Amino acid sequence: MQLTGPRHHSNGTATGSTFTELVYAHHDWHSSRNGGGPGQAEELYRETLKRFQKTYGDVVSAYWCSHIESAVALTEKPRRFPLPPRMGFHRETDWATKRAPAIAAELHRLDELAIRARTVLTGVREATCLHLIAACAGHLLSLADAASAPKDSAELEAALAEEKERIDDVEKYYCEAANGQAQIVYVGGMVTVAVLVSVLGGLVLLLHRDTFLVGVVALIAGAVGAVVSVIQRITNKTFQVDYDIGRPYAFFLGGLRPMIGAAFAIAVTYTFDSGILHLPIASPTAHDKQLALVVVGFLAGFSERWAQDTLATALPEQSSGQSDSSRQQTKS
C-alpha cells in the first residue's frame, strides 16, 4: 500500500513514479482537457502512468477527483507461475478530506483493512477483498469530491452511514475469509506434527515394543484424538483462529495441538495402567486392557478438559486437603 503526501514530498525516481506523482499528473491533464488543450500535460500523464504501472502493475480500478488532486486506485502486477498477481491499494486523499474528518476516518479504516488483507489473505479472496475495499474508498472519496458531493448535510450523513455499512460488510467478509485460510494453515501444521509423532512412535515400537508399548500407543492415540477434535469443531463452525498472527505462527500453533493431546494422553493412560485409577472393564484380560488404554488415550487427546478432570481425580486426598485449607482461609 502506498499512502503519499503533498507534491513536494514525492520520492519518484527515473525508473518509477509514486502514486502522488500520478495523481498530480492526472489532475493537470484533466484540467488541461477542460481548458481545451491537453498537449504536454497529457504526454506527462501518460509517461507518469507508464512508469507507475511498471513498478506497481496495471491500474485495474480507480477513482479520480474532478476538482482536486486526490484519488484512490487498485493495481495488479503479474508474477511468475504459480504465484498469484500482486495486488496494491493506493490512496492520495489528504487534500479532498482535510475538511471532512468523518470521511478521512473511514478511509483510514479501509487502509487498515487493505494492509490486513494483503498480509493475511491469498489468491481469489485477497483479490475480492481488495476490490471491495477500492470500491468503498472510491464511494467515500466521491462524497468529498466537489463535483459529486451531496450538497445537503443530511444527505451527506445518510450517504456516509450507508458507506459505513458497506465497510462493515467488507470487514465481515475479510474476517470470514481470513479465519477460513488460517484454519487451513492451522490444520496443516496439526496434521504434519501428528504424522511425525506417529512415525516416530512406530519406529520406537519396532525397536522397543515391550518397554514403551503403552506410552507409544497413548502418544499416537492422543495426537489422533487432538486432530479429530479440531476437525469436528471446524465442521461445526465453532473453531476460530487468530488469523491476524500470520501463516507461520498459525502453522506453529496447529503443530502444538497434537503435542498437547499426546502429552495428556500419556499422563492419563499411565494413570490407569499403573492402577492409580481403575479401568471399568468387564473382562480384565490383557487384550481388553490394551484396547481400553487406546480409547483412554484418544479421549485424552480429544478433550483436554476431560483429561484435566481425570488427572485431578487421581489425587483426591490433596484435592480435599486444598479445599479444606481454602475453606479455613475463607472463614478466617
Please give the domain count. 2
Report on the biggest sheet.
Answer: 4 strands, mixed
N- and C-termini, Cα separation: 62 Å
Number of helices: 11
Structural class: alpha+beta
Oligomer: single chain
Order of helices and strands: EHHEEEHHHHHHHHH
Helical content class: 55-70%
Shape label: elongated
Describe the structure.
The chain has 2 domains: 2-149, no CATH class; 182-316, no CATH class. Helix content is 70%, strand content 7%. It contains 11 helices and 4 strands, in the order E-H-H-E-E-E-H-H-H-H-H-H-H-H-H. It has a 4-stranded mixed beta sheet, sandwiched between helices. Helix 5 runs antiparallel to helix 6 (153-207). The radius of gyration is 31 Å and the shape is elongated. Residues 1-14 have low confidence and may be disordered.
Please render the helix and strand layout as text.
Elements: E1 2-3, H1 19-35, H2 40-56, E2 58-64, E3 71-77, E4 86-92, H3 94-97, H4 101-120, H5 123-144, H6 153-207, H7 209-235, H8 247-273, H9 286-302, H10 304-312, H11 316-331
Helix pairs in contact: 1-2, 4-5, 4-6, 5-6, 6-7, 6-8, 7-8, 7-9, 8-9, 8-10, 9-10
Short description:
With 332 residues, this protein is an alpha+beta fold.
Keywords:
70% helix, 2 domains, disordered N terminus, 332 residues, four-stranded mixed β-sheet
